[in-house]
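ok so for the tutorial part 2 we go from a plain amino acid sequence to predicted structure tokens. step 1 is just haveing the sequence, like this:
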Amino acid sequence: MASAHAKVNGSLPLEITVDFQSKHHAGFRLFTRDSAASPWKFLKQGDSDTTTTSMPLPPGGAIQYEFIFFKEDHPFAAVLILKQNGVTLDGGMVAVTAPGDALLVVDQVELV
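step 2 — the prediction. this is what the tokens look like for a chain of 112 residues:
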């Protein structure tokens, strides 16, 4: 999968919503980092729709998401929604899809 890109204001907190779209029994974990050279920091985990807020992240930073789910006959789908000041970022609607038997999806959203 190719990483998504979202335009961010590095001085504002980032609101991240996880919205499950398929009926899979699933869980997620979110991580952030300030730059490609910095370590990943755990942000949030869960198994249902949720919204969390991170500290401001600069352009060059990233969000990593991991979804793990039980096998189903239909595709897995979720959406990440990235907002600042209540406004969805350019590139801030990130569709996460995978075959129903993939069991794990890991990717990143690069902040520009």
